[in-house]
Amino acid sequence: MTTEFDIRFAIDPISAAGMGTGELRENFLIDDLFAEGQVRWTYTHYDRMAVGGAVPGASPIGLDAIKPTGTAAFLDRRELIAVNIGAAGTISVDGTDHAVGPRDMLYVGMGSQTVTFAGSGAKFYLLSAPAHAAHPTTLLQQANAKRLDLGSGETANERSIFQYVNADSVKTCQLVVGLTQFAPGSVWNTMPAHIHDRRMEAYLYFDLKPDAFVVHLMGEPDESRHLIVRNEQAILSPPWSIHCGAGTGAYTFIWAMAGDNVDYTDVEKVEMADLR
What we know:
Blueprint lengths: L2 E6 L4 H5 L3 H8 E2 L7 E7 L5 E6 L5 E2 L15 E7 L4 E5 L2 E5 L4 E4 L6 E4 L5 E7 L7 E3 L5 E5 L8 E5 L12 E7 L5 E2 L4 E2 L3 E8 L7 E7 L2 E7 L3 E5 L6 E4 L4 E8 L8 E2 L7
Parallel strand pairs: 1-3
Antiparallel strand pairs: 2-21, 3-4, 4-11, 5-10, 6-9, 6-11, 7-8, 7-10, 9-12, 13-14, 14-15, 15-23, 16-22, 17-24, 18-21, 18-23, 19-20, 19-22
């Protein structure tokens, strides 16, 4: 079988505050996204976001329906963004091939019936949310993303944020996806922290060395928890939770949101003095 899935139910902040390390990892960490020759999904009850990985290897693999969506084809009522974090590959959508290079993203609209991933060395990170309208399949490249250079070396958070989904690139129903890359010597992400109660978020950390990790902070601002996250592992961030962290070295992460709107600025900032 080339497609596997598991289900994560929504956790409230009071329950999360009482969890130990094992329970936190079981509910919020995805540590087995990528396996050659397979499509693996984690279907969440946070805004029905599905987080997955597709690694074609020597042979192409298809995007099959999974039981939690309740549809004949995976994209009957969903949209998809596939991010290539490996070597160059190809995604075929209803018979049309799209060359997807390293760090390119492909948006695939609702109603697409046949999606195939190909390319030895390609590794696709998948993000899908329910959709209400069909938008065209569109290739999104890092060179064309909206770039924001933020932070400084003094605060160890000098970074470049690439907003792939913006007003000039592609129209989506829910998905907002981008990539953050750190300068050498910088390690802190998303600090000062914030929450956005109207949208969940998923983080994929990658470009970490084998012995490196990120200490990911989550929880309510005055009741924080942490998880150790290693290369090519993902975190589910509920709408009520902060999501920030620091690594043992520079790294890259892909952030993706789904929920009530696609407004980047719709956040509630958390003052540094309020974190506990």
